[in-house]
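Running co-folding for 6-O-phosphono-alpha-D-glucopyranose.
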Amino acid sequence: MCGIVGAIADRDVVPVLIEGLKRLEYRGYDSSGIAVLEQGAQPDIRRVRRTGRVSEMASAADAEGFNSVLGIGHTRWATHGGVTEANAHPHISAGVALVHNGIIENHEEQREKLRALGYVFESQTDTEVIAHLMHHHLKGGDSLLSALQRTVKELTGAYALAVMSRAEPDHFVCARMGCPLLVGLGDGENFVASDVSAIISSTRRVIFLEEGDTADVRRDGVQVYDAHDQPIDRGVHLSDVSLASLELGPYRHFMQKEVHEQPRALGDTIEAAIDAGGFPAELFGRNAEAVLSGITGVQILACGTSYYAGMTARYWIESIAGLPCNVEIASEYRYRAAYADPKHLVVTLSQSGETLDTMEALKYAKSLGHLHTLSICNVPESAIPRASELVCYTRAGAEIGVASTKAFTTQLAALFQLTVVLGKLHGRVDATREADYLEQLRFLPGSVQHALNMEPQIAAWAERFARKSSALFLGRGLHYPIALEGALKLKEITYIHAEAYPAGELKHGPLALVDEDMPVVVIAPNDSLLEKVKSNMQEVRARGGELFVFADQDSNFVESEGVHVIRTPRHAGVLSPIVHTIPVQLLAYHTALARGTDVDKPRNLAKSVTVE
Ligand code: G6P
């Protein structure tokens, strides 16, 4: 959360900063700002900040004629201090401007110290202490770089920082600890950004900074320093993020685009298994066979939508691979004295690879004695996979809509592959079953496309949902987590209160909520629990509740008064949860359209949550 971009060039960098911030807006979108160096005999810093979207700040920068060869920018998701212009970044302390992503835990202590030195605070942010600390060290004679290196050693917490000073107009500096930051290398121009999407129009050549690194960024070169302030070569990577994946194309929203990209994203994520004609352990890394054959159980850790992917995987891992599997919300796990069996594999699931709670849960699991870790992640080179022993990258491509869609279904595809690998290595999946699972996987993108084709029918339902204030989602077994995901999607982007229950639990409480105003969405695939689900539906109907049922093509459901049915494709067997995710995504999307909410940037949320 919070996005950072910085640039130094021989051309005007203001358009680079604005474009970068627009691409980083998924990281936070309550306010934004840029600071640039005003050229002339006596260079000074000019700053523009606005609450609201980047486009509003960009118009102000344009109106005020901002133009410079050096600048930094920020898009904010408020943590310390409300959404006000005074709290927006960049923060300035007499000629030093900086932008910050992360949280400084010892800001109160630093604030007291700085107040005693005469500094006056204009904002409620933790960031402002860094600006004043920088100024304090510069005043003491430090260069911009050494002031930064000294300052970061006085901070506890997480940060990605970019800092410029009017006294040193030929460069800017940056630092990273716990929040992502990379340096982009251009031709006679260089950049810094929270992720490569921000600078992709200028360069694909990037250096990923490591924890504790600082860097000196000049027009003609970049020098990185490690946590001990020693020069270090971090290597240059060529990013393969495509520009098309960052642009809307013919779609109205990124969420719509990303929902429709799922057949392709799934096809790409399963490609290696299809090409291999099976499920080799190497899908999870070179050393995977040795690690995965030695484990005796699985501990999954994740947040949000990724957690629901983990819940689904638990059904697969226990029934197909025959291994015990525990799934826990990362923010809970990290603060309890959890039982840790060193022979249980810790699997973290994270689209972004930078969710702080998941990262901390991973570190905590290691500290408890877990020996083996696997990360399933969608962002190459992000922090969580880098801290894991085994890695599997989903190939969803950039996901920009805050509500996760294609990242979820590709996580499920990766988890299914992990299940079959574990089943093989632990003697539960023979060659015939492996071939059968591969065949099911091969059909998956087609089934998902078929589910997408139901969009017009789902859009018609959405018109009715848009007028409701609450909804219930029901599912059983493998589809209970999909009911949870459906309720989460609806909450996130329509602000309709939604809850999900395992259908069998209805009578133990939530049935009290059911009346003619409460729509009840039922995920009712043609599996062994269908008859049970039908009984649960009767419980709703008998209380006047209106049912909206997602059934399979081959299940004998009849529509009747108060029971609306949409048929998804033929039952997809064990992969059915992936197919049944599509209609609940589309229902949330179209309901949001009908309510006129901001689909891609729902209120109060951010895509990657790098704070507690
Ligand atoms: C945020 C996002 C959710 C996401 C969750 C976990 O809350 O808004 O969409 O599911 O973080 O993110 P991760 O990147 O770890 O999967």
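Result summary
The chain has 18 helices and 25 strands.
The chain has three domains: 3-250, 268-451, 455-595.
Job closed.
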